[in-house]
Amino acid sequence: MELTERLSFTDDDRKDLYQYVEQHGTVREDAARRALNMDQTAFGHHVTVLQRDGYVRRVDGKLTVAYGEEESREHSAGGVDYVIRQAGQADLSGLVDVIRRVAGDGSYIEAETVADVVESEEVVLRHNQLGSRLFFVAVVDDAVVGWVHLDLPEARKLAHTAVLTVGLLAEYRDKGIGEQLLARGEEWATEQGFEKLYNSVPSTNENAIAFLEAHGWETEAVRDDHYRIDDEYVDEVMMAKRLD
């Protein structure tokens, strides 16, 4: 199932089952059945139909949403070998830790918010009737060192747009890894038919603004004194990029 695919259910119990799995990331089958108070036979039937329709998959007695898997890509630069791949549920703690380390000084409020939401929900990928989100991560020796995140609205009037955040641990910068992460996110959005990406940062984050501008992003608007960081009012720079 693609993250841009609109959900459609002909049975309320199947809809409830999908929503339960989607809300929890990965769940044991027996736990899901008990939580939804379903008869074992009916539960098995609904799982089979959801599998057939490409909504969920079974893995070792557990259910997870059957997101379409993107290819992993190996890279080498500056003496560092790394892989950029789609993030999964197993990356949750490493992903949140990296986002917080990058944005912990208040220089990237939007990324902080993403970390708060993911940590609170304890789910990495989402696809529901309100919206969807996707992460690609840069991984060195099985450790997450950077990310690019796309937040995809479900509302039809905004369905051509997405919000992107991207970040990389300081010790891995200036090796081209950040460029590869940004390019992967933009490529995915382009392939899925999105027309425009957005990202917002405090005006004090001059490095992030310069990085985005160097890759074709433009400032669309500035909201004066939108943030208060360390008791100082800081403007929000709202940036965007139109995709080919």
Q: What does this protein look like?
A:
With 244 residues, the protein is of the alpha+beta class. Helix content is 34%, strand content 34%. Helix 1 packs across helix 3 (40-52) and helix 4 (92-103) packs antiparallel against helix 5 (109-121). The chain is globular and about 60 Å long. It starts with 11 loop residues before the first helix and ends with a strand. The model has no long low-confidence stretch (mean pLDDT 92).
What brief labels describe this structure?
244 residues, alpha+beta, three-stranded antiparallel β-sheet, 34% strand, globular
**How many beta-strand runs?**
12
Largest sheet composition: 9 strands, mixed
Mean pLDDT, to the nearest integer, reads: 92
Strand content: 25-35%
The SSE order reads HEHHEEEEHHEEEEHEHEE
| Overall 3D shape | globular
Oligomer: single chain
Q: Radius of gyration from the CA trace?
A: 19 Å
Helical residues, percent: 25-40%
Q: What is the number of helices?
A: 7
Low-confidence stretches: none
Structural class: alpha+beta
How far apart are the termini? 24 Å
Summarize it.
This protein is an alpha+beta fold and about 240 residues long. The chain is built from seven helices and twelve strands.
